[in-house]
């Protein structure tokens, strides 16, 4: 269908085109060709949340609200229909697509009324628990979903050609794999600085996409991390090549080069002034004024299907460099032999075990109990009245998705510092997820270790603060008094978990409303925010009872 539409656009057969929920001028492999073809359409209407490559070509742009400002529903699992309710009123002069279509058809209604009518006609008859629609609607609004009878699945026609194996690549060639990053996806989140600065769960790189190569492939090409390489498709052409910095990825296949999609978007041009302004500061954008490079032109439209992998790709070194902004440089969880001390038992950074070993006993599962010494420097000067809060992380459930990192940043109004400050190891995330590798080069296992303030009962940051800016609460929480802090950074030096963060600069914004969000006294919610977004229930909050 996409190829047929492109042919009709070139032939001038399309009199009117409405585009919603996509940015084809950026997302498609032939984005430039599609953009030039769109100019031939007499009436081009774009429904978009913000200006992008496609809406810039449209004669009319109908601004639609963000999903947090909209009513919507979805049935992602057969038999479970979910309701999406707006969290806030729309901030701008926008209108949902369904309301716009209703107005154009001469029967204007709100999106809430349209959604309610659809549920009464199509969803309510699929259940038998409630007799009245009002009771069914109220319960669904309360629960956020409705369990109904699953409808028969309608399968789309299957094309075998779309999954045919790639042709055998030459011994000196690479296979290219294009993938969506968890933050950028296909580029729809390129406007969001939180997600631009979110470390990739595996590579821990921010503010860029890159060419991932295995250690063996990097040695063969004579490149290291940050060296620029050119990826060329066959046949070689100006629109079939891409220049990116190298990231050496342990565990990757030696014949594969992987590149993330979603970068190089027009939406990232707004980050030119991201970060503090000082004598040695550098821009977060590249020479072309954008963050990263658009890898979508390297994809292929084959038999009406977008293919994001292909063979016969050459990778050559250019001689240039672009250092990556990476938040973690150490990769291993083992202690090097040259650092082993005689007679000293060095524990690995990440405590791992297996179920058979765990069943042998608590000691086999690394759960030894440590008795308190008879004499210690900490008197019982922190009596806990009422609650004593604690939190545990299920390491086997954590996938490193980093949703908790973003939720913590939003909850605590943590500023974005920009690419240059990340390179200087001045990131401001209050929570991080360390990633460690184990095993040999060809068979790598990955362990994710979330790190946040441990809320220590005897916090080492509290003892070294000369002005008592860091204090202990009656419920066992480590608290900060901002107007006492004079910035000695003693607490950061004394934190064994290295979770303390200091701002090296002020991070003002031109927009006064954005500046208000940087106020640490502004609270968004009363309870810890990232506990509400973690997948697989990897983290849980609870009360620790004394005795």
Could you characterize the architecture of this molecule?
- The model is unreliable at 522-532 (pLDDT under 50).
- Strand 20 (470-472) and strand 21 (478-480) form a beta hairpin.
- The chain is globular and about 85 Å long.
- The protein has 14 helices and 22 strands.
- The strands form eight sheets. The protein has a six-stranded mixed beta barrel. Strands 1-2-3 form a three-stranded parallel β-sheet, with no helix packed on it. Strands 4-5-6 form a three-stranded antiparallel β-sheet.
- It has three domains: 2-147, Rossmann fold (3-Layer(aba) Sandwich), CATH 3.40.50.740; 170-326, Beta Barrel (Barwin-like endoglucanases), CATH 2.40.40; 337-363 and 383-543, no CATH class.
- 18% of the residues lie in helices and 20% in strands.
- It has 547 residues and is α+β, with helices and mostly antiparallel strands.
Backbone CA Rg: 27 Å
Would you count the extended β strands for me?
A: 22
Structural class, from secondary structure content? alpha+beta
Mean pLDDT: 80
Alpha-carbon distance between the two ends? 68 Å
The general outline is globular
- Helix count from the secondary structure assignment: 14
Indicate the percent of residues in helices.
Answer: 10-25%
| Count of all domains | 3
In this structure, how is the largest beta sheet organized?
A: 6 strands, mixed, barrel
Identify the strand order in the major beta sheet: 7-12-9-11-10-15
Residues in β-strands, percent: 15-25%
Q: Which ranges are low-confidence, i.e. pLDDT below 50, for 5 or more consecutive residues?
A: 522-532
